[in-house]
Design brief:
The protein has 446 residues and is of the alpha/beta class. The chain has 14 helices and 19 strands. The longest helix has 20 residues, at 424-443. It binds zinc ion.
Length: 446
C-alpha cells in the first residue's frame, strides 16, 4: 500500500464524540482518507509519497466556518466598538467603496488568517466575489462564496434609509447564478456557492421568494442574516407586519436548507418556528458578545435547530469560537450540563458545518472514504500541558495559533504554522495597503 500522504504519531479525535486514539496513523490517497486507526494497525509494508510525523500533536477534522466576510478584516479593532455591524455603521469603509484589487488583497488576508487557524472550509460573502473566490481558494482552503444578494440599497442603510434598488437586485441575482455555474459542483469541492440572501430588511418579500425559487432550480442552499439586530426586527415589523423568521417562512425560505446567521432577537414562537424547520443556525458567539448580545442557542437546539459555528467578520479563529459557543450556552442555563460539552462544540464546528454546506457524508469527520481535511494542533506549549482530555484542553485553552499543520483534500496547505502556497508576509502587506487606502477614503467621506 502506497499512500499519497501518511500522518503518524498524533493523538486522533477522528470526529466529535469519538474516543481519542493514541499514536494514530492516517493514510490519504486521491484526496480521501483511506486508512484511519492506530499506527500499529497500518497494513504491513505501507509506505507513502509524503509522511507528516505528528507526535505530540492532536489531530481533529478540518474546521468549517459557515459564515464569514473576510474582506471586513479591514475594520477590525475599530468597528467592534462603534456599532453592531459594519454595513450599518457610518464612517467606516463600506463594501461599495472597495475596489476589485482591494477586495482581492483583503479577502486573501482574511482567508489566510482562517486557514492558518484551522478552517479548511469557509463560507464567505461580500463583494467582487467572482475575483475574490478563486483568489482565496488559491491559498489552499475550500472556499464557498457568493455575492451579497439584496434589492435594497446599502448606501442608505447606515443612515436608516431602506431604498429599493430593483435594477441592482436583478444584477445581483444574475451575478449569483453565474457564480453557481462557474464555481459550484466541482469534483474536488475546493470551491462552491451558497446563495447569500443578505438579510430580511435588505431584501423585499418578492425578491426573497425569487431567491428561494433560484435555490430550488439550481439545487444550491441559501444563507441569510436573520434577526441580527433590533433595527432589522423593527423594520420588518413595520414593513411586513411580522417577525423576520415569519417573513422567511412566508416566502418559502425557512427550511432545513437555510443557514441563518445570528438568530439573536427571537420571540418564543420564532424559536419554535426556526427549530421545527430544522434551520442550520450559524452561531457567532464572539461577534455577538462583542456587540453586547447573544443568540438563545440552548432553546434553539432544544427546538430542533442545528448548531453551527462561525466567526463572521474581523477575526477568524474557529478554535477560540468553540470556547465562546460553549461558554455563551452555559451562561444561558447558569450551569454546566452534559448536553453542552466540548464534544458538542466540535460537532458544531465540523460535522454540523459540513452538513450546513451541503457536504454532509463527505466532510466533517476523519473517516475512511471522506474528503481528507484535517488539522494538527501542537500540544506541547505550556498552556496545553497537561492534556489528560485533549479535546477539553483544546476547547478551553487553545487558540488558532496553536494550529501547526492543515491538510485540505489530502494536500498540506499549512506546514509548521506557515502557508505552503503563498508568501504570508506579502499577503499581509497587500491587505494592509488596501485597508489603509480604504480608511483614508472613508475618513475623507468619499
Ligand atoms: Zn455576517
Amino acid at each position: 500500500m502506497m499512500y499519497d500522504l501518511l500522518v503518524t504519531g498524533c493523538t486522533l479525535i477522528a470526529e466529535a464524540f469519538a474516543t481519542p486514539i493514541e499514536d494514530a496513523a492516517i493514510g490519504i490517497s486521491g484526496g480521501r482518507f483511506v486508512f484511519v486507526g492506530p499506527r500499529s494497525a497500518l497494513p504491513v509494508g505501507a509506505t507513502a509519497k509524503e509522511t507528516l510525523e505528528a507526535r505530540g500533536k492532536l489531530c481533529i477534522p478540518g474546521l468549517v466556518n459557515v459564515h464569514t466576510h473576510t474582506i471586513l478584516c479591514m475594520v477590525r479593532g475599530v468597528a467592534e466598538d462603534m456599532g453592531f455591524a459594519p454595513a450599518y455603521t457610518p464612517g467606516v469603509p463600506q463594501g461599495q467603496m472597495v475596489t476589485e484589487e482591494e477586495a482581492v488583497a483583503l479577502a486573501r488576508l482574511g482567508a489566510l488568517e482562517a486557514m492558518l487557524f484551522g478552517s479548511t472550509l469557509i463560507n464567505d460573502t461580500y463583494v467582487h466575489t467572482a475575483l475574490t473566490l478563486p483568489a482565496m481558494a488559491d491559498l489552499g482552503l475550500r472556499v464557498f462564496s457568493c455575492n451579497r444578494i439584496h434589492d435594497v440599497s446599502f448606501s442608505g442603510i447606515a443612515h436608516g434609509r431602506w431604498e429599493v434598488d430593483a435594477k441592482g437586485g436583478e444584477a445581483r441575482l444574475a451575478e449569483a447564478e453565474a457564480l453557481v455555474q462557474r464555481f459550484h459542483g466541482r469534483s474536488d469541492a475546493r470551491t462552491g456557492v451558497q446563495l447569500a440572501a443578505h438579510a430580511p430588511d435588505t431584501c423585499t418579500p418578492d425578491y426573497l421568494r425569487r431567491i428561494g425559487e433560484m435555490s430550488r432550480r439550481l439545487n444550491v442552499p441559501v444563507q441569510a442574516h436573520l434577526s441580527q439586530s433590533k433595527v432589522e426586527v423593527a423594520h420588518i415589523r413595520e414593513r411586513d407586519g411580522m417577525t423576520p423568521p415569519e417573513l422567511l417562512d412566508s416566502v418559502g425560505l425557512l427550511d432545513n436548507r437555510l443557514v441563518a446567521a445570528h438568530c439573536i432577537h427571537l420571540t418564543e414562537s420564532d424559536i419554535a418556528r426556526v427549530g421545527a424547520a430544522g434551520v442550520h443556525v450559524a452561531h457567532i458567539p464572539k461577534g455577538n458578545a462583542t456587540g453586547g448580545t447573544f443568540a438563545p442557542t440552548r432553546a434553539l437546539v432544544r427546538a430542533g435547530a442545528k448548531l453551527c459555528l462561525a466567526t463572521d467578520n474581523m477575526h477568524a479563529d474557529m478554535v477560540e469560537v468553540m470556547r465562546w459557543g460553549l461558554n455563551m450556552g452555559r451562561i444561558q442555563h447558569g450551569r454546566v450540563e452534559d448536553d453542552w460539552q466540548p464534544e458538542h462544540m466540535l460537532a458544531a464546528a465540523t460535522l454540523n458545518g459540513a452538513d450546513a454546506m451541503g457536504m454532509g457524508g463527505e466532510l466533517g469527520a476523519i473517516r475512511e472514504g471522506y474528503r481528507a481535511d484535517l488539522v494538527l494542533l501542537g500540544l506541547q506549549r505550556p498552556h496545553l500541558v497537561p492534556h489528560p482530555d485533549p479535546l477539553g484542553t483544546v476547547v478551553h485553552n487553545a487558540h488558532g495559533r496553536d494550529v501547526v499543520h492543515v491538510v485540505v483534500e489530502g494536500e498540506v496547505v499549512v506546514r509548521d504554522g506557515r502557508p505552503t502556497r503563498c508568501d504570508m508576509e506579502q499577503v499581509c502587506a497587500e491587505g494592509a495597503k488596501a485597508a489603509a487606502a480604504l480608511w483614508a477614503r472613508a475618513r475623507a467621506g468619499a
